[in-house]
Amino acid sequence: MREIANAPLSANAPWIVMKFGGTSVATVARWRNILELAATRRAEGARVLIVVSALSGITDGLKQLCTHTESKRRSEAAAALADRHHALLADMALTMPETLGARLADLADLAETGAGPLGELAWQARVQAHGELMSSALGAAFLSANGLPTAWLDARDCLASVALPNQNERTRLLSAMVEPHYDAELSARLAAQGEVFITQGFIARDEEGRTVLLGRGGSDTSAAYLGALLRAQRVEIWTDVAGMFSANPRQVAGARLLQRLDYEEAQEIASTGAKVLHPRCLSPLREPRVPLLIKDTNRPELEGTAIGPEVREHAPSIKAISARKGITLISMESVGMWQQVGFLADVFDAFKRHGLSVDLIGSAETNVTVSLDPTENLLDSDAIAALAADLARVCRVKVIAPCAAITLVGRGMRSMLHKLSGVLAEFGQLRVHLISQSSNNLNITFVVDEDVVDDMLPRLHELLIGAGALRTDDSLVFGPSWQALYGAGEQVLPPAQWWQGDIPKLLALAQERTPRYVYNVPTIRAQARRLKALSAVDRVHFAVKANTHPGILKALAEEGMAFECVSPGELAAVMAAVPESAPILFTPNFAARRDFVAALKTRATIGIDALHPIEHWGDLFAGRDIMLRVDLGRGLGHHEKVRTGGTGSKFGVPIEHIDRFLTLAHEAGARVIGLHAHLGSGILDAAHWGEVYSQLAALAERIGSISILDIGGGLGVPSHPGETPLDMTALDRVLKSVRQAYPQFQVWMEPGRFLVADAGVLLARVTQEKEKGASVRYLGIDTGMNSLIRPALYDAWHDIANISRFGEAATTMYQVVGPICESGDVLGSDRRLPESKEDDVILIGQAGAYGAVMSSRYNLRDEADEVLLP
Ligand code: ADP
Ligand code: ASP
Ligand code: MG
Question: Which of 92, 252, 373, 697 has a CA-to-CA distance to 798 between 20 and 30 Å?
Answer without folding.
Answer: 252
